[in-house]
Amino acid sequence: MELTAVDHRIPLSDGNSIPIIGYGTYPTPPMTPKGSCRAGVKLAIDVGYRYIDGAYSYQNEKEVGEAIREKIAEGRVKREDIFYSGKLWGTDFDPQRVLPALQKTLQDVHLDYVDLYIMETPMAFKPGDEIFPKDKKGNWIFHKTNLCATWEALEACKDAGLVKSLGVSNFNRRQLELILNKPRLKYKPVCNQVQSDKRYKNVKCKNIRSKEQHDQGLAGNQPEGRSKNQQLMLGVYFEPLLEDELLNSLGKKYNKTAAQVALRFNIQRGTVVIPKSYDPTMIKENLQIFDFSLTTEEMKTIETLNRDVRLAGQLRFSGHPEYPFHDEY
């Protein structure tokens, strides 16, 4: 049987499963016209995506929820067909704020539960409704981070039936092990959502997810080598990954685009990918990766494209005591 996004899921360590490709709703650029996200999610569901990746910090969960609700009302999908992932932002890490933050997400997306709820960052910020709090001088207002206390509040949300699986994003090895080694840990993170394009291989993270260690999955942001913000790219110039000669030559061989080859590479190594686009053509193309396979040699050759460059380094927060990228994964 030909695998599709609908029937191709991989198991998570808690007994649940996740589609291997998701539709990312991050607004690129951030000032994307109102309604673009809603239209993108509706089309994504129509063409076969079942994993929708959202976040409170994206400030568009209401549009995501409208799209999901419309498609359910049309009979296009049922609630159980949709895998929705939400994210807890750093201004809500205080344990008393975790449940209200999740409840706001549930209200905005018109769902009774989320399939996956992720700590979007290991860095806490000043608690409050301002997503990016700054002082009068324009400096970021950081807050003391207690990852274990936040995780315990998330575990309570899972116990209440509001979340099926819990995960993290952009955690380094030390931060991840703080949770994994927490006394009285009830639920392990099922994923660490990180950059997965070939400029930064995340070898350490791949080790962490091995079954012998923590049985943790890897979800890939920016699997096609695009950056959310050009200012995050460390001032290093390199050719766009999708212009790479190897990926394009493989694309010609399989009658695919370089982006489709990059996505195929990631899912073929067992990485969940979350491409982001509001362009209808790209939304459709990103899903058309289940009708070809890369050879073992081609997979090994693509591995050599590693440049050890982060596209999601979040340099603006580099002064935070829990800034994750000073350490290796």
Q: Can you walk me through this structure?
A:
This protein has a single domain (9-311), classed as NADP-dependent oxidoreductase domain (TIM Barrel). Helix content is 32%, strand content 13%. It has 10 helices and 10 strands. The strands form 2 sheets. The chain has an 8-stranded parallel beta sheet, with helices on one face. A two-stranded antiparallel sheet has the order 1-2. Helix 1 runs parallel beside helix 9 and helix 7 (245-254) crosses helix 8 (258-268). It starts with 8 loop residues before the first strand and ends in a 26-residue tail after the last helix. The relative contact order is 0.15.
Short description:
The chain is of the alpha/beta class and 329 residues long.
